[in-house]
């Protein structure tokens, strides 16, 4: 029994390090999504090993040491996302608060009224829906009177995207960063005080046994979006179903290349997928913003029948002047370029 416990301890410890390897296959990336669940398991196994500890049993001793190191490693990754920062800071009332609701509706979900009721209740200034097809577009006509502008890209392949806002819009366009099957939206708009900002909504494909075997296309899309954001001349906000956890290397690289900040740091993990079972949830509906944008609140909202929980945020544009990001360093630009090339190569192999 002790050897079995020790071997399981080794396995649950070592899999935590798989995402650190430069391997894009989903079998290596999946453990990044399950860090919290793995951490709980590791703590339980540490307790069991300590209880079974015998100074003569080197298997158990090794397991205790390995688990201890791994738990510290996991904690270092997760702790920055716990709600420990800005607890006592109050919202600056001198700036208008903008609310945004981003929700992957699950294309096959026909509980249209649940989302419509939520929209009526929350009254967001900006609404982004993902996996919305023609049927969803028709159903959402019920909420269109609340918004002054909409940009619709219905798809029947689970990558449809719809954008609605109450603000003045200067321009809107659809991007296909890697594949013609997966749209993204870019909208230039103004808040009620005339501050201009750019909204980007994205939905790259996940690495999984049922979708893409690797994360190459997803990460290539991240780099394309990041380089676009870095070239913009206005504060920017990027949100949507990233199919990527906020603490992953690719998410951090995205933030670095785009010169954006992760809204979850210090504000809580807020797992959005899957809705059930709740104890497996991890955060893949993400929000990144320019330094000129202050995020006051992020949270998840009630189940609408999808496999994602709706993601809600409130933010303000707190600086009237925009500090354009410096050019990428040659090393970072080259790295981003290689990731983009790998994504297109993966797409060609698929075709």
User: What is the succession of H and E elements?
Assistant: HHHHEHEHEEEEEHEHEEEEH
CATH H level, superfamily name of the largest domain: Endonuclease/exonuclease/phosphatase
* CATH domain class name of the largest domain: Alpha Beta
The averaged pLDDT comes out at: 94
Question: Can you characterise this structure?
Answer:
This protein starts with a helix and ends with a helix. It has 2 domains: 2-81; 98-317, Deoxyribonuclease I, Chain A, CATH 3.60.10.10. The protein is built from 9 helices and 12 strands. The strands form 2 sheets. A 6-stranded mixed β-sheet has the order 3-4-2-1-12-11, with no helix packed on it. It has a 6-stranded mixed β-sheet with strand order 5-6-7-8-10-9, with helices on one face. The model has no long low-confidence stretch (mean pLDDT 94). Helix 1 (2-14) packs parallel to helix 4 and helix 7 runs parallel beside helix 8. The longest helix has 21 residues, at 58-78. It is of the alpha+beta class. The chain has helices at 2-14, 26-33, 35-51, 58-78, 112-122, 134-139, 216-231, 249-258, 330-350; strands at 98-104, 126-130, 149-153, 161-165, 168-175, 184-190, 196-202, 236-241, 261-262, 285-289, 293-300, 311-317.
